[in-house]
Specification:
Number of domains: 1
Distance between the termini: 47 Å
Largest sheet: 7 strands, parallel
Radius of gyration: 18 Å
Bound molecules: NADP nicotinamide-adenine-dinucleotide phosphate
Helix content: 40-55%
Strand content: 5-15%
Number of helices: 8
CATH class: Alpha Beta
Strand order of the largest sheet: 3-2-1-4-5-6-7
CATH topology: Rossmann fold
Length: 262
């Protein structure tokens, strides 16, 4: 049996990763903060697909959360073949006006936990028969975004870190494949969550489905690609971003976000 660990499995893109992998016969380790929701998802997926589901409740913003999660999988005798670092937080608004602790938590989840889990499981996978790691970045990784300031910077880290790690692991012939998934606007709670500060209004036509995003991420990772940007218009945005200076991109994004954040 092949086992996948998905962080942020309780809803959104993370839940879609779980549904796709369950339909392909993967056993699952579901990780998020809300244990009851994870238990219900585990029950549903186990019944529908005759797989094994394990639930580990974890707040990945807490210090040592990644190490404790890794140890919890060892204690249960679980070997992880596919790690999906999907859990992520977003804050919309003016950096100096947003709560500092919330910004720090975002860095802890989006960067620290993802980095630590990549380190722990890449080493474990290299000792096994290899494995796959999918790190969820964002289209926001490609440009500085005023009013999503820290979020965009955390995703730029995820993209850069993952692309470099992809090369390292390949050069070392470790058998471990790592891929960065860069979704554009996707129809999940993240697009309309009061806990994230202001709301960004985006035309419905620009929203991708979380199912489609998750599927493209899994496919690209299994094929050994370093990066995947779902959707032609999103890929065009990344190509265009190479034509301008980062500051020109920041000014354009700043105008757009000031207009559409309410
Ligand atoms: N939606 C978009 O437009 C979009 C675009 C580009 C990239 N992304 C990225 O895609 C990933 C998934 O986003 P989404 O849209 O699916 O978001 P979402 O619907 O808001 O779901 C976020 C998930 O992360 C979990 N999570 C949040 N804080 C956590 C913490 N401290 N510890 C553990 N788990 C935590 C949540 O579960 P609990 O609340 O149960 O902990 C939930 O399962 C994120 O990395 C996001 O940055 C999203």
């Amino acid at each position: 049996m092949t086992t996948a660990l998905v962080t942020g499995a309780s809803e959104g893109i993370g839940l879609e990763f779980c549904k796709i992998l369950a339909s392909r016969g993967y056993d699952l380790i579901l990780v998020a903060r809300r244990q009851e929701i994870l238990e219900q998802i585990a029950k549903d997926l186990t019944t529908a697909h005759a797989i094994n589901c394990h639930v580990i409740s974890s707040d990945l913003a807490r210090p040592q959360a990644a190490q404790q999660l890794f140890q919890a999988t060892l204690d249960r005798g679980l070997q992880v073949d596919f790690l999906i670092n999907n859990a992520g937080l977003l804050q919309n608004g003016f950096f100096t006006e947003l709560d500092l602790t919330t910004q720090e938590n975002m860095i802890s989840v989006n960067i620290m936990a993802l980095t630590s889990l990549s380190h722990l499981y890449a080493n474990a996978m290299a000792k096994q028969n290899g494995g796959h790691i999918l790190n969820v970045a964002s289209l926001a990784a490609w440009l500085p975004i005023p009013n999503q300031n820290v979020y965009a910077a955390t995703k730029a880290y995820v993209l850069s870190f993952t692309q470099a790690l992809h090369d390292e692991l390949n050069a070392a012939q470790s058998g471990v494949k790592v891929c960065a998934l860069c979704p554009g606007y996707t129809a999940t709670k993240m697009m309309d969550n009061p806990a994230q500060g202001k709301k960004l209004t985006v035309p419905g036509s620009m929203l991708q489905s979380p199912q489609d995003v998750a599927l493209q991420g899994i496919e690209a990772c299994l094929k050994g690609k370093p990066t995947v940007v779902p959707g032609l218009s999103n890929r065009m945005t990344t190509w265009i971003s190479h034509l301008f200076s980062k500051m020109a991109l920041a000014k354009t994004a700043g105008r757009l976000y000031r207009k559409n954040l309410n």
